[in-house]
Structures are given as C-alpha cells and as structure tokens.
Amino acid sequence: MTWCALNGTLMRLEEAAISPMDRGFLFGDGVYEVLALVDGVLRARDLHAARLTQSLRGIQLDVSVDAIFDSMDALIERSGLSDAKLYIQVTRGAAPTREHVFPTTIEPTVFLTASPFTAGALTPSRAIVRPDIRWHRNSIKSVSLLGNVLLAEEARQHGAAEAILHRDGEVTEASTSNVFLLAAGVLRTPPLSDAILPGITRHLVLELAEAHGLAIDESPVMIDELTAAETVFVTSSTRGLLPIVAIEPGGVIGDGIPSPQFENLQNAYQALLHHQ
Ligand code: PDD
After folding, report:
1. Which fold has domain 125-273?
2. Domains 3-116 and 125-273 fall in the same CATH topology
3. pLDDT tens per residue, range 221-257
4. pLDDT confidence of 120, banded at 50, 70, 90?
5. Are 89 and 32 within 8 A, CB to CB?
6. How far is the centre of ligand 1, averaged over its atoms, from the C-alpha of 199 (Å)?
7. How far is CA 5 from the centre of its chain?
8. Residue 85 a catalytic site member
9. Which of 3, 24, 66, 163 is deepest in the core (most CB within 10 A)?
10. Looking at 43, 85, 141, 239, which residue is catalytic?
11. Would you say 164 and 235 are in contact if contact means Cβ atoms under 8 Å apart?
C-alpha cells in the first residue's frame, strides 16, 4: 500500500483527491523534489530543502519548507519504509476560474508520496544526444516537464537510458539527470546556470571528487568532447551515477567500459549513501 500526505494529512494514495481546477493540473504551475531515503536516512535533506526553497521563490510561492519536511517525516514513519523514493509537489492550488495570472486568495496544494525503492544495479548504458528543446529556466525544478518527458520517451524508443541535451553544441544536462565526463584525469561537468537543474547528486559528486583530490573543471562542455572522454556518466537521486558507454550520434565512449577512476567515484558515492 502506498501512503501519501495531502496538505499535511496522511492517507492512502487511493484516498487522495485534488481539484481539476488545481493550477498544477491546468498550467503545470508548481515545483517538486525527488529524494532518496537510504537505510532510513533522508539523503542530503538540507540540500533538498534549500533547493525547494529556491524553486518556490522562483515561482513566487510562499510555503513553509520546514512544515513540508515535518509532514514528510510523518509520512516516512507511517509508510514503515527505510529505502524509498520520496516525492514532494507544491502547486499554486485550485482557483474558482482558469486565469493565467496568480489568484490572490488560494491555498497551495502540497502533495507527498513515499514509494518503495532500492537503487538498482547500474548497467552501463547508451544515451541519445538531442537539442535541448526545453524552456530557459531549468534551475527551477518545475512540474512543467513536457520537454523532459518527450526527450526521455525518445531515448526509451531508441533503447537508450537517457537523452543528453545541448544548446548550439554546448551540453546542458540530460532529460532526468546531470552530465559528467572524465578526461585526462579531470572531472568535468557544465557550470551551474539557468540552463540546468542544480542537481543534489551533482553537488555530492563534486564534493566527493574534491575530497579525493580529483581535478574538477566546471567550464562549458561541447557535445563532441563527450566522445573524446574516457567515461561519461549521468547523475540523479534515483539513479545515482549511471555510466554512459555509447552515444547516438557519436559512438562508443573511451574503451566502452567505465574507467577505474569512475569506479572509485561510484564506490565513494555508495559509501556516502550508506554511512551518511
Ligand atoms: N530528476 N536534471 C534534471 C532535468 C532532473 O530531472 C534531475 C532529477 C536531475 C538530477 O537532480 P538530483 O541529483 O537532485 O536528483 C538533473 C528527478 C530524479 C526526477 O525528476 O524524477
């Protein structure tokens, strides 16, 4: 049975009901977070709380993030789960009429779920490379995900695990993750900007790399630099570090297997998850 919390009330998922006038449904007017619960511990809780605060500020929505996390704690306890995927969605709420401009007197809708989840074995995967067709404020974790949805589905239809995106040849991120490459002993990832989501896993990987004395370069990455790399990988809360061994168009990356340097980073990340 899946439990959820709707506006602070715990209930079974089947019992939850949201108005069709909710602006999340009508306009995609809301933001979200996806978090990993590992061995009963919420991974990088403070970083997720800070990002949610930023997303809410980005859409001018005033909601207590502390209250949301209190509600999440209650939900985790009720679910009885110790390994889970946690979802937070906050929308501007339901107004009596459909108007683009913000209504003045509505209550936001806060919806949380906890579903059983254990990170699966990370099989080295393929990715497609496509132009980034999304809007220009990707630093806001908006629920308006149509661009990401279409790109992720296109990857699936090509038998690929991800779609790596670029704007005029410059790598932004992937449809559901951030992009990294290892080349000549340097860990590279595109710089933070409005073009990408400031991934929590991205942040943790950079911290780990620094702690392990790995050189880091956060300057722009061009798409043709991916095929010249030893290892390319993508990061997210649900997939952790997923190695990409071939891209289309582009071909095989490095030797077609993740490098030892990647394996070290991967092991360090797993250790962090289980001893946080
Ligand atoms: N997605 N970039 C995009 C476009 C994403 O959708 C995600 C995560 C990331 C990685 O962020 P993080 O490391 O904080 O998970 C980067 C989540 C998992 C999702 O939408 O389900």
Report:
1. D-amino Acid Aminotransferase; Chain A, domain 2 (3.20.10)
2. no
3. 999 999 999 999 999 999 999 999 999 999 999 999 9
4. low
5. yes
6. 6
7. 21
8. no
9. 163
10. 141
11. no
